[in-house]
Amino acid sequence: MSVSFPSPSLTGPVYLITHEFYPVRGGIATFTEEIAKASAGLGYDVEVWAQSALPQHERSWPFRLRRMRLRGSHDLWCQLRLAWQLVKARHQLRHAIVYLPEPGPMMAMMMLQFFGARLPRRLVLTFHGSEILSFSRNPLRRWLAGRLIRHATRVSTLTNYTQELLLSYFPEAADKIFLTPGALRTDLVVLPTQPVRRKNKLIVLTVGRLHPRKGQLLTLRALQALAPEVRSRLEYWIVGSQSKGGYAATLRTDAQAADFPVKFLGNLPDDELAVVYERADIFAMTSVNHAQSIEGFGLVYLEAAAHGLPVVAHDVGGVSEAVRDGVTGLLVPPHRPAQLAAAFERLIHDDELRQRMGDAGREWAGRNCWKQSAEALFGANAPDS
After folding, report:
1. How many domains does the chain have?
2. Cβ atoms of residues 29 and 20 within 8 Å
């Protein structure tokens, strides 16, 4: 099979191709949606090609949206279907900028490379972290990913950590790599700063899918290690959907043994989640590297900071670029349970520290702008290959 993508001109629409788009939740989906909105706001002609969704989950967007007949998974059948969609659309992509913001469509494009297809000339890629390890540890994928990167016009990452990781495995990105940092969701409602109120219970909150990498079990066990009089002042609230495997069951078993309330709130819509953030006192997401899955950044840390919550987190991956240690939260080395418990104890006992870090977090969370990242991806100064 040999398929030729015609060479595009230097101007034209932006086709953003993704497997992670609303109603999918998570950091990559948020990044994809916000880049598309920001690009449309800058005047780019944007069309998003996304995975299928039920009609009741649709909403209006400031750009065109095309739903493809695929689930958006990383399995071979889904990649083949997406690759065939790209083949059929090759003439439509002639004068386009083709943007692949996550690994699903990258794998489909890599598959086309394997079969000898010529790729769109203006190709932009964004890497988040875990896919770098996944691509690099398979010799065939590593070769195909390297070819894809060499062909790309621009390559971006959200953090310096991910940039260094990408360059360590794929040095061919060196002359075209740049940062597109994440920012707050544009529809995030942030209330004015409120004075610290004395409460009978302090609420520790985690927002993230129930997965070993997100560290809910580590947070729960650190809270269980606190002194009884400290535990009597606590509640632990967990927001997030269940992932595959037995992790959620283990987490619930540990929660039943705790002598303080542990609430599983499930996957909440944004308006209900905002209320939960406002009721919480400390945000915790103690991520760890798990197999080939790493925390490249963590937009949820910014979201929590914007709500005035001090953060407790592990110092892994790109987390230190989302949480300022000692300023907006406390970073602890991973696999140090005593240090993690001590970080919680410090914040629980110090009302003024929580207030100070929460105030600093509100300012810190708003420092980045989606339009700056979009302009970096598609702006007039972008190099063309």
Report:
1. 2
2. yes
pLDDT of residue 381: 57
pLDDT at 9 (0 to 100): 32
Residue 100's SS3 state is strand
Residue 247 exposure: Cα atoms within 13 Å on the Cβ side: 17
Amino acid 311: pLDDT = 98
Look at strands 14-17 and 46-50 and give their pairing. Answer: parallel
Same domain, 55 and 128: yes
**Range(s) of the domain holding residue 125:** 14-183+368-378
**One-letter identity of residue 47:** E
Same domain, 22 and 169: yes
Query: Is the peptide bond between 228 and the residue preceding it cis, with omega within 30 degrees of 0?
Result: no
pLDDT < 70 stretches in the chain: 1-11, 189-198, 380-385
pLDDT at residue number 45: 95
Token pair of 304 as six digits: 């929590």
pTM, to two decimals: 0.90
The string of DSSP letters for 288-327 reads: --BTTB--S--HHHHHHHHTT--EEEE--TTGGGTS-BTT
Please indicate, yes or no, if residue 260 is contained in any of the structural domains. yes
Rounded Cα distance, 108 and 96, in Å: 18
Report residue 238: phi and psi, to 5°.
-125, 120
> Are 171 and 149 a contacting pair, CB within 8 Å?
no
Domain identity same for 144 and 22? yes
158: CATH = 3.40.50.2000
List, as one string, the DSSP characters of 3-65.
--PPPP-S---EEEE-S--TTS-SHHHHHHHHHHHHHHHTT--EEEEE----GGG----SSEE
Kindly state whether residue 93 falls inside one of the protein's structural domains.
yes
Residue 72, both tokens: 């958006």
d(CA 158, CA 151): 20
| DSSP characters over 204-265 | EEEES-B-GGG-HHHHHHHHHTS-HHHHTTEEEEEE--B-SSSHHHHHHHHHHH-SS-EEEE
- Statement to judge: residues 49 and 166 lie in one domain: yes
Handedness of CA 184, 18, 4, 107 (dihedral sign): positive
User: Quick one: 170 and 243 in the same domain?
Assistant: no
State residue 126's pLDDT score: 98
85 and 171 in a common domain: yes
